[in-house]
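Tokens in:
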């Protein structure tokens, strides 16, 4: 059985993304107009490159099947083969309490990147809303995705 979850955006993440995009749309032309040449390109690189990188990594959908988990992004995919999955379960938002971003986005286009908290340790999060959280753990990493699926060790998928 294959289950596909299309990512939805929460109101807060959508607001952060829109406000950031408007801010960049205002700052970039001003930067091009008023700032000296060398500094101009540095400012553009510092602002534009991380935002474009984040936009490219924005999750679009999550597919869970007997072959594993596939997170489709705007550009590229993250594939986790079923043989590498040690644990997959639904999780409560409270399990992310106290999470600190190590690297990545803390709201623009979602919460994307590496995070850390006491309960989970270091984990990779790719979410666009705080509901329907799915934890996927391998021997090397812990991933947090959005998805309304849970699975047992035998690989059966439950949509409860």
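Residues out:
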């Amino acid at each position: 059985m294959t289950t596909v979850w299309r990512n939805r955006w929460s109101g807060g993440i959508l607001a952060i993304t829109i406000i950031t995009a408007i801010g960049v749309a205002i700052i970039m032309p001003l930067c091009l107009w008023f700032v000296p040449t060398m500094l101009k390109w540095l400012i553009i690189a510092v602002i534009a490159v991380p935002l474009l990188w984040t936009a490219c990594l924005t999750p679009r959908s999550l597919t869970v099947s007997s072959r594993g988990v596939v997170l489709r992004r705007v550009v590229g995919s993250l594939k986790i083969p079923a043989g590498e999955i040690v644990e997959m379960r639904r999780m409560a938002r409270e399990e992310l309490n106290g999470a600190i971003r190590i690297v990545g986005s803390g709201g623009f286009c979602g919460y994307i990147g590496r995070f850390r908290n006491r309960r989970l340790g270091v984990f990779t999060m790719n979410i666009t809303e705080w509901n329907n959280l799915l934890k996927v753990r391998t021997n090397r990493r812990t991933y947090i995705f959005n998805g309304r699926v849970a699975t047992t060790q035998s690989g059966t998928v439950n949509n409860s």
